[in-house]
Design brief:
The model has no long low-confidence stretch (mean pLDDT 87). The chain is 59% helix and 0% strand. It starts with 14 loop residues before the first helix and ends in a 5-residue tail after the last helix. It is mainly α. The protein has helices spanning 15-26, 31-40, 44-58.
Length: 63
């Protein structure tokens, strides 16, 4: 499976997008789905910044 980052193709759906689409079909309006939709509204650089911040905050739990 290939992961495309930094793409300008707004129609492209990565595996995480597909996973959240399936979740939304199974549980419409769930908290995780709503948060992911908000995350996807961010611009590319903002998304990368969010992911870096999350990674740094969650690093102590990496076991």
């Amino acid at each position: 499976m290939q992961w495309r980052s930094g793409t300008d193709d707004e129609e492209f759906k990565n595996p995480v997008d597909l996973m959240f689409e399936a979740l939304e079909k199974k549980k419409p309006g769930c908290f995780a789905g709503r948060q992911y939709r908000l995350f996807k509204l961010a611009a590319g650089k903002t998304m990368k910044s969010i992911l870096i911040s999350c990674g740094a905050r969650l690093a102590p739990f990496d076991i």
